[in-house]
Amino acid sequence: xxxxxxxxxxxxxxxxxxxxxxxxxxxxxxxxxxxxxxxxxxxxxxxxxxxxxxxxxxxxxxxxxxxxxxxxxxxxxxxxxxxxxxxxxxxxxxxxxxxxxxxxxxxxxxxxxxxxxxxxxxxxxxxxxxxxxxxxxxxxxxxxxxxxxxxxxxxxxxxxxxxxxxxxxxxxxxxxxxxxxxxxxxxxxxxxxxxxxxxxxxxxxxxxxxxxxxxxxxxxxxxxxxxxxxxxxxxxxxxxxxxxxxxxxxxxxxxxxxxxxxxxxxxxxxxxxxxxxxxxxxxxxxxxxxxxxxxxxxxxxxxxxxxxxxxxxxxxxxxxxxxxxxxxxxxxxxxxxxxxxxxxxxxxxxxxxxxxxxxxxxxxxxxxxxxxxxxxxxxxxxxxxxxxxxxxxxxxxxxxxxxxxxxxxxxxxxxxxxxxxxxxxxxxxxxxxxxxxxxxxxxxxxxxxxxxxxxxxxxx
Length: 460
Known about the structure:
This protein has helices spanning 8-20, 22-30, 36-51, 57-88, 91-114, 118-146, 152-173, 187-202, 210-215, 219-230, 234-250, 264-298, 303-331, 333-361, 364-383, 385-388, 392-396, 402-431, 434-440, 442-454. By secondary structure, the chain is mainly alpha-helical. The longest helix is centred in the middle third of the chain and has 35 residues, at 264-298.
């Protein structure tokens, strides 16, 4: 029971659950990045056919920014209903719902091209957001509650690792030479249905969260789940089961989304989790995920070179996330998060300086310096706030408040990301690189200072 790494079954389940959840979040975050030109052309053609209106390039970008941000509006809705789904039908059964919604959203998005309807595409992106908000929360709850505390960080980190694989996949299929052209972009969504079907077929073979089963009086099923997740003998199963029962007797009444702020312990853990989410959202990752290709083009790179560099960023982030999964249960959450946040602040100062310098000097070499700094930023993000933000709240609150606390953290993250994506392009058009400094240096610094004083260590 003192293993630092999960058993093979738990490891494979964590990969599978994350493959059906956070993978698609990463995929959706970036697929609009290299293929933005094709989507803008589709938006223009659809608007012209339906409303006989020829949109200006600036109007296209403004409308497209809102459509991109709708993913996070939907995720907020999904996070709001997370406690209801998670506590009523369970973590595992809830994933049937979120996965089904993703399949429907993929079909809607792909078919919007055939009928030239940007409205259907917009609705599909909103629905996808709802499903992602649900799946991220459900996966975090299931993995956190099903893993031994000694390797809980490693298991929870698979959420971030699969998110980075989704980013690499989305960056690749969204390239113009793959499926990012005017004619073939619907294939981006047909391809995405494949892993969703794999998850749906595999879910019947995955156990429900033992904590959820104990809370609902299903002790026999809970024993089997503990035995499978922990890979332990009957005597150890009884010990784990007793710990869960004692914890739930102390925290017998589940806390609702808004009542979580009435209890001092739950309120503190939830608020600290929300600060982690704010720092993650306002570190600049949302803009780099959505507009990295544009940033690289702004400093002189061709669309081809910018797209290749964008894929490289995904690979770098994956490496950072993988390294973090190995070290997090050794060094702890608090030092890792504080050190990495500080490194991200320094990286953002350098990114702002390079963007501003290129605007003034237009030296081609600055573009490649920007790629190097953003690569450092992405690697650091993958080691720290990227994956940690998805599970740290579940470790700071009790069983009764876990789904509500995680829901609040998810809502905070998605709200911040949505606001950033909606305002970044218009603000960048008004004040240029200064917009990057205002949005991503000041808020991250404030969040890091708060975490220094209030973030506890939750290892073990």
